[in-house]
Amino acid sequence: MDQIIGLVTQYTDNRHEDDFIDRLNFQYTSYGFVLSALIIGYNTYFGTAISCWTPAEFKRGWVEYTRDYCLIENTYYVPLEDPNMPPERYREERELTYYQWVQFILVFLAFLFYLPYLYWSTVNWWSGLQVKAVVDAACKLNKTDVKSRQDQIEKIASHLKKHIDRQGRKSPIPFIPNAIGRNWVSFNYVLTKSLFVINLLAQMVLIHNSYLEHYIGLRVGFGSNWIANGIFPRQTMCDFEVRKKGSIQKYSVQCVLSMNMLNEKIFLALFYWLLALLLLTIWNLVSSFEHFFRVSSRKAFVSRMLSAGGHGATDDDTGSQSDEKEPLVERPTNYSNDYNRIISVNSDIVVVLHLISKNAGDNVCQSVVNVLFKKLSEKSQ
């Protein structure tokens, strides 16, 4: 039991390795799918999921038997406009095989949302840059004890500096190409966001285009008519046999699947939520790619953090005459080189700083960048 609680706690706790759009995908959307599965499961097994119109000769026990049998076994759809019953050999082809499994399918789809994040949390530390530990420490800084807060920022900056010092032309991870290994964190972070997009597209195709038509037969969204195509029919037919005094009596009863009313509304809401989330995730993926892999964007981000601490660019850095006032403290002679080095850090460091900014706030990120700048300046002196 403790292991189960620990697993749930690990899943629900914020690990600070992500931004808000990531959490919308792997956490909040998963919650929505699981909640929908619980509602449908409760209605199926504890509510009145199906009611059947039985012959007058059926007593109460027979009525309950009919309802339970038709719920467990598959009913089949016959349009109300068709007055004729289909031949027995064709009834199996019209069976609705999905409604007993809807809640389990939703739980499986919820798990698929978690897989990209599971991959990200597993591989993001392989290069030696402890993303979770660094961002988590930044989020848990002491807000009352100034000395303790500064010590923690020093530790964070020291870890980032060690990673910068270790960087070379070779990949820090064996059997990984150099181009990927030197940018391991940023590559996998953008890859994770790409996996979120692929997952969303796959699930929308699954729901809308009947990817598993023979098993769940779901088609919702644009251009769908559930009553006409029999996906979420209200009225179905059910065949069963009853043994009476040595003979077998066959019955065909008409049933009402009230659970399909609930399934219809839930799948419609989920489909349009996935559509909105897809647009947000694609926008987040494109902006992240530009932010981490475009040199000018990385420099602009780090420069903005440095400017808040009073470390602005010199005339030599900008290539033009600056209107900035003379600094109160004289800058060292190698200031320009140190400044260029800090704003030219690779994409992995920018990813960590980005996560610190998104989870702990810009003020904490600015403090980390300023301390990191001082440490790099001390080494060059």
UniProtKB/TrEMBL annotation:
It is found in: Cell junction, Gap junction; Cell membrane. GO terms for biological process: monoatomic ion transmembrane transport. The chain crosses the membrane at residues 98-120, 266-286. GO terms for molecular function: gap junction channel activity. It is a multi-pass membrane protein. Residues 310-333 are annotated as: Disordered. Keywords: Cell junction, Cell membrane, Gap junction, Ion channel, Ion transport, Membrane, Transmembrane, Transmembrane helix, Transport. Pfam families: Innexin. GO terms for cellular component: gap junction; plasma membrane. PANTHER family: INNEXIN (PTHR11893). Structural component of the gap junctions. This is Innexin. It comes from Caenorhabditis brenneri.
